[in-house]
Amino acid sequence: MCGIVGYIGDKNCVPILINGLKRLEYRGYDSAGIAVIFDHNSQIVKNKGKVSLLEDKLESLHLFSNLGIGHTRWATHGIPNELNAHPHFNSEKNLYVIHNGIIENYQTLKKGLQKLGYEFITQTDSEVLPHLIDSFLKKGNSLFKSVQLSLNEVEGTYGIAVVYEKEPDKIIAARKGSPLVLGIGENENFVASDVSAILSHTKQIVYLEDGDIIQVFKDHFSAKTILDKDIEKEIHEITMTLDEIDKGGYSHFMLKEIMEQPESVRNSMRGRILFDEGTSKLGGLENVAEALAASNRIIISACGTSWHAGLVGKYMLEQFTRIPTEVEYASEFRYRNPIINKGDTIFFISQSGETADTLASLKESKMRGALALGICNVVGSSIARESNAGVYTHAGPEIGVASTKAFTSQLVVLSLITLLIARKKYMSIVDGKSIAEELSKIPDKIAEILKLNDQIEEIAEVFKEAKNFLYLGRGYNFPVALEGALKLKEISYIHAEGYPAAEMKHGPIALIDENMPAVFIAPKDSTYDKIISNIQEVKARRGKIIAVASQCDNEIDKIVDYTIKIPDTIRILMPLLTVIPLQLLAYHIAVKKGLNVDQPRNLAKSVTVE
Length: 610
What we know:
It is built from 18 helices and 26 strands. α9 (304-321) runs parallel beside α13 and α14 packs parallel to α18. The protein is of the alpha/beta class. β12 (212-216) and β13 form a beta hairpin. It has 3 domains: 3-244, Glutamine Phosphoribosylpyrophosphate, subunit 1, domain 1 (4-Layer Sandwich); 249-446, 3-Layer(aba) Sandwich (Rossmann fold); 452-596, Glucose-6-phosphate isomerase like protein, domain 1 (Rossmann fold, 3-Layer(aba) Sandwich), CATH 3.40.50.10490. The strands form 5 sheets. Strands 3-2-4-1-10-9-11-14 form an 8-stranded antiparallel sheet, covered by helices on one side. It has a 6-stranded antiparallel sheet with strand order 5-6-7-8-12-13, with helices on one face.
């Protein structure tokens, strides 16, 4: 959500900023802009729409500058337009600020600044920042001190970068609740909200923590807190490559990431299964494994797709560990004064590790004394650093806004956690070995399902004009129904609902007619006969039915309109297989509707505002 990139060095910053912003497009945005400083002068260029439009504008200007900042905006306060786009500036138009996050007390700050004579021209909360910083500059403070003093008056979240004509040798950057990194080069340094923006220039990275503020020069940097305490920052060497964040010949990142799942799932379990002992080994949980197994209650806190993974995790944990497990929307959890007791363990699941609601929920839980454990994909992310302990999913970079491989990797990690706890409690070595063996087969079974891509595309052609969809499943596959519906909504803009199949007759059946496609997740398990009855109920009302079914099931073909046959596995692992056809179905429907599946409207990859 929103993107920041900044450069200071000996090179022309303009192409560096543009390329960095292009790397950040996957996060979702509605406008873009840059500001550059040169010869104690400056230039700002911004527009509504894509970075490519900004690039077109810049071509005719022939700008050359060694210092600049760039931004992609995802609207919170104020409609998407050129005026509300970042960077924002002061009245003299010599101070420029880019900002990710939300200034919660901006109305109060704005009124105070208006009394001082400052005029506002945008609808954004972010515009208070350049004026507030300017007010401290006018009192004789340096740029660094002015930013520091300003941030002490700000309530809310921010990742910011600031440049100033009168101090053209530095960028000031600060973070609270919104990710920001410093990239270290040779006679050049970078600031970015995401490593991917600067990966082509450096792999030497400094992660900013909440409350950090840094002065970035071309050949060095210094760091303090906003409370003026000196701090030392560690430089990390990252291993991600540019190839990992390119499309690799696929039409879209989403399709690439769907097709990568045999490998991403394999990576999530690599070295973590102890086959001889029928258990798992999770290095990040070694120091808390006994406390985890002794938990009185487990809570899983997450948002969106990660929340659906958490629901599957609840089924796993309660079935095999007998520990009561609750799944909470992180966006609601911290605000309802939740009951957290000694002996409770709370897992926080987030692909990016930066999800604002989940991060805030984690901090609240730690304050109340809970054992806070993270499950995330991005090494060095905020949730990874804030948690007491945790597990990386190792799914690799996920660029498509609609999460796919992150979901299946989260399911793998939850199954490994379940196996770890269950073997410490009630599960026999025989049962543990059986689950471990089945888990090891999942990557090949996913690869087998992906061979059905052409068949699923043909089904998508039939239903691309549908206005509504119903997704139905039972047991472990109910959360998969929710996830399938979410994928369709996110990228095709078709209204879709996920329901437990047995609940259909308690309301949603009223919607069924010949224009309402229903997707049933119907593998041959202990609920198979019941779900066949639900299929018959839809069929009797002329509903069109797509069934995700077991390869060995030849009877279901007689009562549904379309079948997608998948391999079998044990119930605990079935969601890893049943979700794959639903991802492909959503993808192909959206593509056939001519939509941008990687950057669906109004959405952002990493939701870093509440």
